[in-house]
Specification:
173 residues, alpha+beta, 60s Ribosomal Protein L30, Chain: A, 7 helices, 8 strands, 29% helix
């Protein structure tokens, strides 16, 4: 029970850092899906070495669960978190496919140390940087730690972004 991970998005825990940085940058800069020209995610080496993390045309539900371009597309397009992320209709939607093709996944140079990746048996510090090209400008998001929602029955929690602790009702974010 103590090793459970609560995730705000229905995807692999190693996509959560990219989703945290991406969603924070979209919200902070008022970016909408239609504004996005390109997204570059700089993250952990597994995303580069393991194709299912970075393939822009993932095949099937299981691959999509581990796929950063698919997860970014779901967040950008505002698809309701849950099974809809992996329905045949969603995965084959032309808008989803077009958004996935806009996402590049690259290595974040400060994320080379596997010792930092786990904390208490959970995904820990994975420095992740996201660059969103929109309106002819580039907007950046960054996080060291993925957002973690409050476990069921809890209203308040905290998250770490950019090395700072922010408190608030994470279940509503």
């Amino acid at each position: 029970m103590l090793d459970n991970t609560y995730k705000p998005w229905p995807s692999c825990r190693f996509t959560q850092h990219a989703l945290t940085a991406f969603s924070d940058a979209m919200r902070e800069h008022g970016i909408r899906a239609a504004d996005i020209e390109r997204v570059t995610v700089k993250t952990h080496p597994w995303a580069i070495m393991t194709p299912h993390f970075s393939d822009r045309e993932p095949a099937g539900m299981v691959t999509c669960e581990f796929n950063i371009p698919h997860s970014i597309a779901m967040a950008a397009l505002g698809v309701t978190r849950g099974p809809a992320w992996y329905s045949a209709e969603t995965m084959s939607d032309p808008a989803v496919q077009a958004m996935r093709r806009k996402v590049d996944v690259e290595l974040e140079e400060s994320c080379r140390d596997p010792e930092q990746w786990y904390r208490d048996g959970q995904a820990g510090k994975l420095p992740t940087r996201v660059f969103i090209r929109a309106h002819g400008q580039t907007f950046e998001g960054y996080t060291d730690f993925a957002r973690r929602p409050a476990p069921p029955g809890h209203c308040h929690g905290r998250r770490r972004t950019g090395g700072q602790v922010q408190r608030g009702n994470l279940a509503s974010e």
